[in-house]
Recover the amino acids of this structure.
């Protein structure tokens, strides 16, 4: 079914575009939300009359996207998350998490425009994230995920270290005792 888009619909198209979509998608999603109208001669004439206005809005969006790209490029955001000793996060960093961090730095980006590899990040490290701004305009943002050390983890780690030192001391005692008993048995053999 052919429709004319009333608004930008990601990733379908932009305002004024004529698209061929499934009937159910049009009837159940696009039409009720006012995102599209059926493709008819009457609706086509209405959009042709608005074409200049639509093109002016698209030009403004391109300009805004270029400006935002310039400011976003090279931006580095740091996110601190609880993680295990192996570097695996206890949670996940999603496009929403990144959008929230960008918002804190003054960038308003919709989460659906942020492309996170595998839909989420589950380990500490440095990642290059792409942000789709408009049409083919994308910006690259560096996201640094750091491990957050909790107090219980610090206690747990120090307890492990204490256990290790106790085990080491115990092994040394056993080795010393074994060496002493070997020396005693060798001395007894040589005395015989």
């Amino acid at each position: 079914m052919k429709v004319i888009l009333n608004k930008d619909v990601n990733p379908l198209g932009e305002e004024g575009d004529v698209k061929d979509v499934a009937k159910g998608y049009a009837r159940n999603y696009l039409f009720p939300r006012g995102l599209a109208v059926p493709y008819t001669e009457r609706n086509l004439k209405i959009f042709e009359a608005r074409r200049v206005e639509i093109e002016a809005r698209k030009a403004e969006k391109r300009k805004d996207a270029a400006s935002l790209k310039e400011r976003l490029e090279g931006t580095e955001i740091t996110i601190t998350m609880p993680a295990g000793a192996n570097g695996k996060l206890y949670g996940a960093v999603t496009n929403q998490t990144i959008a929230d961090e960008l918002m804190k730095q003054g960038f308003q980006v919709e989460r659906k425009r942020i492309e996170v590899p595998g839909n989420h990040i589950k380990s500490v490290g440095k990642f290059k994230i792409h942000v789709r701004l408009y049409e083919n305009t994308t910006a690259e943002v560096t996201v640094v995920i750091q491990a957050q050390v909790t107090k219980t983890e610090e206690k747990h780690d120090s307890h492990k270290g204490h256990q290790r030192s106790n085990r080491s001391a115990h092994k040394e005692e056993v080795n010393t005792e074994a060496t002493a008993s070997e020396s005693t048995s060798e001395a007894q053999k040589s005395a015989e």
The first helix runs from residue 23 to 30. Helices lie at 23-30, 41-72, 95-104, 151-191.
